[in-house]
Design brief:
Strand 1 and strand 2 form a beta hairpin. The chain has a single domain, classed as Rossmann fold (3-Layer(aba) Sandwich). Helix content is about 45%, strand content about 15%. Helix 4 packs across helix 5, helix 5 runs antiparallel to helix 8 and helix 6 packs across helix 8.
């Protein structure tokens, strides 16, 4: 897949990739933190099979997508709606993975008349107040540091991601082995063979592009800090006012985003359906992509 770019009415650049069926029901994919539009390829096969056009964007500040003026859930959501307008998507679904979940919900809040459906996979929930107590300390620490001492924690965060970037890139001589190394930590249960099948059926070029883009995304320190800050601050809208149907997909053994995030989010939404999976970890899109794509198609035709 070749990355494309568009210009918003403001003149800012947004890069994106398209997956699935070009004539299918439209959906916008919002990647995790950090990551890139290449992440949307996880749903490519399901989107092709089920008739879904998946527009996966590099969120503002990642790779060559220029930052939005207001680095917040609603600021990014307004960009998503602007992208849909430029691409003439009409009414569309939104899919948010991990750190993309808050932006997916914000898009439904900002444009309830345009968003048909929201799917959240392994979604991070609000960490405001005591919202992050179930998050393992190594994952909770960056959020706490950003909230308390952003000037000090930002270079520390950049250093951590620099080490991760090096660890990944030194493995890229064998893209399949590098991909399995990348996925193996947060994958659990049925996700392990699903990820192995994804790697087996991918070309070396596709895997290398995906991993190189993820590595490049770890250099987007400003965007990463904006993401972390958005989750630590009080959400700028009330979930009880999001009337759009939201489907939540979450593994009960997710080491990256505890299932309590999914349960709390569902309890605050008026129109949520929760799918919880025994012994599964973070990568629910690898195990349940077909059901998600089928749901997008169904509601896109409604």
């Amino acid at each position: 897949m070749t990355r494309q770019q568009l210009r918003l009415a403001s003149g800012r650049r947004v890069d994106y990739l398209e997956y699935g069926d070009p004539a299918g029901a439209p959906a916008v994919y919002l990647h995790g933190t950090p990551s890139s539009a290449r992440e949307g390829r996880w749903l490519h096969t399901a989107a092709c099979t089920r008739g879904v056009r998946l527009v996966s964007i590099d969120r503002p500040g990642y790779l060559n997508s220029e930052p939005c003026p207001v680095a917040s859930f609603t600021g990014v959501a307004q960009d998503v709606v602007a992208v849909a307008e430029v691409l003439q998507l009409g009414r569309f679904a939104v899919v948010g993975f991990s750190g993309g979940a808050g932006y997916a919900l914000a898009t439904a809040h900002v444009s309830p008349d345009r968003v048909t459906l929201v799917h959240l996979g392994g979604g991070i929930g609000s960490l405001a107040g005591d919202g992050g107590q179930d998050l393992p300390l190594p994952r909770r620490l960056p959020f706490k540091l950003i909230a308390r001492a952003p000037a000090v924690s930002t270079p520390l965060l950049a250093g951590v991601f620099r080490l991760m970037r090096r660890g990944l890139r030194k493995r890229l001589d064998s893209p399949a082995e590098a991909a399995l190394w990348f996925f193996e930590g947060p994958a659990r249960g049925a996700q392990i063979p699903a990820v192995a099948e994804y790697v087996r059926t991918s070309t070396d070029e596709d895997l290398r592009n995906e991993l190189n883009d993820w590595a490049a995304s770890t250099s987007a320190t400003r965007a990463i800090v904006s993401d972390l800050t958005a989750y630590v601050r009080r959400r700028p809208f009330d979930l009880s006012g999001v009337s759009t149907r939201v489907e939540i997909w979450h593994g009960l053994d997710d080491p990256a985003a505890p299932v309590s995030f999914a349960k709390r989010t569902a309890s605050e939404l008026p129109n949520a359906q929760t799918h919880l999976f025994d012994a599964e970890g973070h990568f629910v899109f690898h195990t349940h992509g077909d059901a998600i794509a089928a749901s997008i198609r169904e509601h896109g035709e409604a």
